[in-house]
Structures are given as structure tokens and as C-alpha cells.
# Entry
Amino acid sequence: MSLENYLDQKGRIFDIQKYSIHDGPGIRTIVFLKGCYLRCRWCCNPESQEYDIQNMTVAGKTKVIGRDVTVREIMPEILKDIQYYRRSGGGVTLSGGESLAQPDFTEALLYACKVNGLHTAMESTGHAKFEVIERILPHLDLYLMDIKHMDSQKHQEFTTQPNGLILENARKIAERAKELIIRVPVIPTFNNTPEEIRAISEFAASLPNVKELHLLPYHRLGQDKYEGLGRKYLLDGIEPLNNDDMLPLLAVAEKSGLKCQIGG
Amino acid sequence: MAKFNSEPVKKSPRIDRLLDRYFASVPEIDADRAVLVTESYKATENEPMVTRRAKAFEHILKNIPIVIREDELIVGSSSKKSRGCQTFPEFSYDWLEAEFDTVANRIADPFNISKETCEKLAEANKYWKGRTTSELATSYMTPETKTAIKHNLFTVGNYYYNGVGHICVKYDEVLAIGYEGIIAKTEALLKALRPGDMDCGRKTHFYEAVIISCKAVIEYAERYAKLAEEEAAKCSDSVRKAELLQIAKNCHNVPRKGATSFYEACQTVWFIQQLLQVESSGHSISPGRFDQYMYPYYKKDIDNGVITREFAQELIDCFWIKLNDINKVRDAASAEGFAGYSLFQNLIVGGQNAAGIDVTNDLSFMCIDAAMHVMLPQPSLSIRVWNGTPHELMMKAATLTRTGVGLPAYYNDEVIIPSLLSRGVSLEDARNYCIIGCVEPQAPGKTEGWHDAAFFNMLRPLEMVFSNGYEDGELVTIETGDVANMKTFEEFYDAYKAQMNYAIELLVNADNAVDLAHMERCPLPFESCMVDGCLESGKTLQEGGAIYNFTGPQGFGIANVTDALVAIRTLVFEQKLLTLAEFKVALQENFGAAMDDATVSKITQSVAQSVAASGTPITEDLIKSIYEQVKQSAVSPEKKQKYDALLAAIDELPKYGNDIEEIDLFAKDVAYTYTRPMETYKNPRGGMFQAGLYPVSANVPLGAQTGATPDGRLAGKPIADGVGPASGRDKLGPTAAANSVARLDHGIASNGTLYNQKFHPSALSSTSALEKFVSYIRGYFDQKGMHVQFNVVSRETLLDAQQNPEKYKSLVVRVAGYSALFTSLSRSLQDDIINRTTQGF
# Structure
């Protein structure tokens, strides 16, 4: 794609959320893109995973999830909160789904944000060809990258993909991104032991330029959506993590020397 | 070095003791003032009214019981018990007499009243028939106005039945020269009068009345000095004894003379504050820019080592508690409109001075700490915000917001100053504005603003369009034609504007009638001597003596009217889903929701009338059968289905509060239907009318009197509270809602606009979240929002408080332009607060 026609670039999103305060600095608007390479069992946005437009039952009513938009169409929506971005040092965060699964749209949208002087961030698994990521990085101020597990087999078991490509990309991104923050969804039965957290945080600390690590405690706010999509929630019965569960893990992570926090 | 010493000091144990006693006290009505004012009036029958007022004030202050409460450092109490109240029969009395048996148990703001008090009040009340301001006001109103009031088009009940209040006087001048200084000024003016002057007689009596009033205040303070000495003599605790002797010394010095210390300054301000509320029953007596006029006294004492920060904070905290010590009983209907025993004593910190320089100081921070220490509804703490407001002050204010106490309210200098300028206020005075009552800006010490002049429910004219001006068989407003014949949306909207214009003119008529009544029957010499212009012109405030005069009636329901008009435009004229006539029936039938008997009767009556109009004779049996049919028809399954579909279609429409430019600009136009006609009228004091856009808490009781509306709001449900979106209609979070609100023209609503937001505690839990919250307020203000305030309390907490009120005796929430104890509010108002959209993340 050429950036010449970036405003007409089409993409598929399923939500735009304002006043987001946990996904990058300041007050942000999150654009949720549809489609993901991974199928994480804990995913709180299961409606984001399929690229296809779907029906989901929400509070007894059928809701169509996903719509095709151009950058031109959604920029005005994003710019509505520009005063709040300016005052708070906020901006736009792309989430999903996986933005890298729609590279042309992601690149065009981020470019449009930069044309308007907005701070840009992206929450991403990093599971894509590096050529794709390379196109995105010039327009991205902050890469929020998940590292979920250091053991590839367990990674695959819980997310359907091995972690090799992700870990490889992590190093390249760290070298080239303006800023990279590593985020770890902490999921009971998956990665909530001190050993697992230590392994991830040591890896994160070994990446050049990475200074921060966020531990995101498991919650089950997305559980109803699985039902709404007619899917089974595989983590049924697992209790959300509270602060007391998280503090020992935070202490472990901090040993890596990184600045660590609970929550985004 | 940091610019401010904003380090909080610890709360003194005294404050907790005072608070414990506050919460243990039950509001009670006293008869003393009513008896004394009656005695005095009887003795002064043939004297000029202003003299009678001064002599009544003097008689009250000489004889009303005085009390120094345990542990108090600042003294002066209008009632024997904490949270008690006096009554003011010169404004109105019959409503209280009618409520003698019920006032203790009514839903909103109950008061205990003893049998003895009832007897004393009943005896005093005998004198007042035909002598009150409210009776005189009624006689000044046109018949059309009385009809409109009877049909709840608007209410001017506040000043109709009570004093006006709503003022910020020159605390700074009394602090500087004391009442002896004011007496000296007045005596000089008196001396300068020439017998041949056109208004020599009137001015003479006014000046003499001022002198009588000021002397009475000095004597009243002297009574406290003596009482403190007596109590000190009896006191065995040496610490308390010393405190009482200091109190005696203070009350001997001030407010007779100018204050010489911060402590004396606190005592001075309290006496002014208390006694303004003895002279008249007007509420919203607002201390205004306390951090500004008190700062010189604070700084001097701190610099000279006369006072510690700890003691200064303790005094401020004591002043805060005193502001909660006074109380006011209103009639049951008004009590619902101003629910929560609120006195609306607005105190504002921060902002710029007359020269446009930010003057935030250490006291600004200490005032916020005082609010955190006492966690009480009074004073209504406000903060002025502009580009020069220090971030530190914003963070401090946000920390108070986070406690959930509903304070402070945030005001935008960048909107309010130009707004006041547009009303003829000078640049210097506009920059020095303070807030009165809920949200009303004024130039302090120079204004008689009449800020809370009426509640105007903007949905009622919409109902009048549908009913062609009729209600209960009576022509209430004007005929704008049968809606069935309206061919375009513009025709309908024009009919709405015509109904608005008509009702607004009657509102003006009502307000001006009440204004004249106060001018004739209740001039207030004490209040007037502390407002610029009065002494100079020789006129009381009520006669138009102030530099700036306004009347500010508040309209509300913009969100509902906007959503309703959009529904009509889209569903009737664009989609042609139904006709206006069908919409009218849908509203009458309350969208098929179960109707109460009153509604069924109302519809029956209207059907019977049209049957009668067609020539069929009406019999009792026929009415019975219509009644049954109406009752049945409203809930038949087919109808239910039809109406559910209609409600669903309404639900789908774009709504105000979601940052949709086209809808918001329409809302702006809707607001103009109220604000623009208003500014064309004048009051008897020579000032202009200026609209406000806020309902206090009247959106609930007045919503209860309003039928179903085309925005899908069912009959009797609350109306949107302030300029915010209708309850539950905003779906896109706080920035989208605020952007919609900011699109209204706040500047033209120079009597104030009110925007309530509710945040879940989780959205303010960390420092970083608090920083974002502050940015959010700044972002809203960048877009020219005028005011915003927050309830930060979880839905669960509020629901639990409804179930277990005894556990939540001290839970304070934001109601409208003020906070109140949640458990003191009526169930429906509690529900309204719970149902305001919560912004959680």
C-alpha cells in the first residue's frame, strides 16, 4: 500500500473506546481491530479473534460485531477527544485482536494519527513477520507487547501458537521501537508461579532499551462474551487474582531490575 | 522552594468531638425568632418598613437565646440545639402551620417540632395574615400567571415563600473596619443629607436602619462575650477556661472593630454569616472567596509567629462545622427541590484576582483539607479553574473528589469571566467572581443577583404543544393548534417556541411580583450595608441599591427536550413511523406502561371532554366505562407490543450526550429557546433577567408531575439533572458526554450551568488515574464547559446505604449544586443519583 491514499485505507474494527486510562500514557482512545493469530484461553475480547463479522448475544439482544471502516471515517471520531490527549499526554492505542493482522490499515491509521500530532501506542502479541512490524514502527510511539510464557509448549497449549516468533521479534522491536513496554497477563494455571514470572521478567530485562514491565492480573470480565458467541469458556472456575496474589509476583519481577507495576 | 505550603496538618481531636455531637443532633424547629419578630412588628406598625425591619432585627438579637456549644472555638448559634432552625413568618407561615403534624415525618428534610413550639408559632402566626411577602406577591401576579403556577409550568416558590439570600457580602470590609467603621460611614452619609433632598426621608430611614442593625450586631457579640466570661468563671478545666476567655475577648473586639488576628477574622466572618441568616430566611448566603479575604490575617499571624498552622487549620475546621450548625425548614414541596437540609453556603478557592493573576494561596489548600477533615455537606466548596491554576491545587481538589463527598465543584474562569462581562460586569469585578448557592456566578459585594429565581421545567411547554395549551379542561397557556394538523417538524418546533415564550413571560411576571413584594415588605438594611452601591445610593438591595442587579431563573430538561424533538423529527416527519396524533396517544397512555389511578383519571377526563364536545351527553356510567377502557387499553398485549416497538425505535435514535455534533448543536438551539427570551426582560430593581441551566434537585419532584415525553421517558420519571445527558442515555463514556455538554452555549446561561458526573471509585484509585482525571477536567474546560462536579461512589455502596441507612449516617453525596447526607434524601432522589450513568473503567 502506498501512504498516499492512507485516508481511504479500509480496515475492520469492532469498537472504539474513549477515556481509556490503562493502555498507555494519559487519556486514550482505543481502536479495537478485528482478527487475531492467537486464541488465548483467557482472552477478554473473544469477539476480536475471528476476522469475520460475527453475531454476539449481549444482554439478550443480537449485536453485530465488526464493521469495515476507512481511516477517513474513524479519524474524526478519534480526534473528538484531542483536548483530553493534549492535557494528559494521551493519544491513541490500537488493540484487538491483533493489529499486525491488518498491516495496511494499521500503518495507515497510525500514520494518520501522527499527521494529527497524536501519541500512538499499540497492544500487540508481536506474532507476525518482522517485515510487517517494521512498517508499523516508524509511526508508533509506544509498543505494548505481551510476553505470556517462556516455555513454547505451554505457550502453544494456552494460545495455540508457539512463542518462537514472538521472542525473536521482541528483540528486534526492542532495538528499533521508540519505546517498548512488556506486559504479562498473569493467568492462574498458566503462568502465575514465581518461576514463570521470573523467567519472563529476566527475558524482558535482557532486551535492549526495555525499562518497564506490567503485570496484568487475570480477570474474567470477558466470560459472558464466550456465552454470547456460543463458545465454551475454558477457564471456568478460575478465580480472579487480587492484589495479595500479585504482590509476591511483583517482587519477583522487580528483581529483574525493571520498573514493574501491577496493571496497565 | 515550592510555592505553597500545602502539607496537610492533622485533624484536631476537637473536630471529631464536634462532629460526633453534630451527627447525634436531630434537626428541630425553634419558635424564638418568630415570636420576637412578631412582637417587634406589633410595636412598630406605623413606622417605615425599613425601620421596622431594623428594629425587629435588633429585638431578635437582644432577646434570642444564645449558647456556646461544648468545645466550640467560634461561637454564635441561631438555635438552642445544633442543626436547629428558626422560622420567618414575615415571608410566609401557613405552609408550616399546615405541616405541624407531618413535618417530623415527611420524606424530605424532616424536622422535630415540640408541642410548645407549635403553640407559640400558631399564636405568632395569627398576626401575619395579610402581612407577608408571599401574600403581597400573589396580589401582584396576573391571573394567567397564577394559572401557570397552579399547573406547575414553573415554580417561583423559593422567594415566594422565603427570603432571597443568594448573596456574597463584603466580608473583607467588615474584617477591615468592623461594624463601628460601617456605622461611621453611614453616619457621615446621614449627616450629608439635606432636608430639601428629593429622597431625604427615605434615605434617612435607611441609614438609621443600618445604624440600628449594626449596633444590634455589636451588642449581640457582646452578649456572647459576657456568656463566655460567665462560663469561664464556672469552668474548672483550665484549658477550656482559657479558651472561653479568649472567646470573650474575641467577641468583645469583633465584629465591633476590624479583626486584628486570624482567629478574630474567623469569628467575624462567622457572625456575618450567621446573622445574615437571622435577618432573613434567604439561603445561599455564600462566604465566597474565603481564601482571599482571610489570607492577609493568616499570613500576618503566621509570619509573626502568633499562630501555628495546626491552630489555623483547627479554626477553619471549626468554621466549617459552624456552617453546618444552621438549618432552614422549607415547605414540603420546596424541601424536595432543595433536598438534604442544604443551605448552599458556597465557598470558593483559587482563581485569579482583579488584575488577572492567579492568587491560589496556602489557605486554598487548607480549605480543601478542612473539607476532608469534616466531610460534611457545608460549605459547598468550589474551586476556580483557569489556565493559570496550579496543577498542585487541581490534584489536591481531585483528592477531595476521590473521597466521594461530592466536593469540590469545579468552575471555569475562562467561561464565567466573559459571561459576566457580557452582562455589563466590569473586567475587574468579573475576574473577582465567586459562586453563589449552587452554581451561580456573581461579583461579590456588589450584586443582588436573585439567582435562584424559579424552576422552569422545559418539558411542560412540550406537553402544552401536545395538549394545545389545555389541561384538565382549562386553557393553561396558549393554543398553538392541534398537533394532528402540523405538517412539518418546523411547525411543531415553532409551536414549542411559542409555548416557551408564553410561559417565560409569565415566569417573569411571577418573579417580578415577588421582587416587588420583597421591596415593599422585607427590605434588609443589615445585608444592604455590606453591598457596594446601597449606602452610596441610599437604597436597600431590595430597592435596587446594588451595583449589579439580576434575576436568574433556572431552566432544566434540555437533554429530554432535545431527545424528544429528535424523536418527533425522525420518527414522525422523516421515517413516518407514526403520526403526531398517534404519538400524542402514546404519551397519554404512557407507552403502555402501567398507569397510576391519577393518570387514568386524567385521560378519562380528556376523553370524556372530547366525547362531550361531539355532543354526546356525559353520564356517570359513561365515565366509568371510559375509565375501565382506558385502564384496560393501556396494558392490552397488542398495545404493549406496539409501544415496546416504539420505545425500541426511540432507543435506537441518536441521543444528546454521545458527542454527536448534529444532535448537540440541536441541543444548543433548544437551550436557546429558554436562555434567549429570558435576557430580554427586566426586573423592578433595574436589572436584567439572565437564565441559568440547572435544576438543583427539582428534576425529581417536577419530573413526578410531568407525563410521558417523546424521548421515551415514562410519566413521573425524573428529568435530566442539569445540562447533562438524560439518565442512562450517554453510552460512550465521560469524554463523549462532556464534549456534548460543552457544545451548549454556557456563556449565555450566565446564571450558571450544572453538570453532574458520576465516576466509579476505581477510575480515581491511583495517583496516575487522578492525574488523568485532572486532565479530563482541564480538557472539558478547554472546550468551554462552565461547571462540573462529581459523585465518586460505587453503585453498590449507594444501594447498600439505601438498605442499611444506619450504617451510612455520614455518607455525603453530590445532589446538584451541593452535597447532602445521602440518607437524608428521599427515596426517589436517592434512586435518581444511583441511576445517573456511572463512568467506570
Summary: Chain B has 35 helices and 19 strands. The mean pLDDT of chain B is 93. Chain B touches chain A at residues 659, 732-736, 739, 763, 768-769, 771-772, 775-776, 778-780, 782-783, 839, 841 (CB under 8 Å).
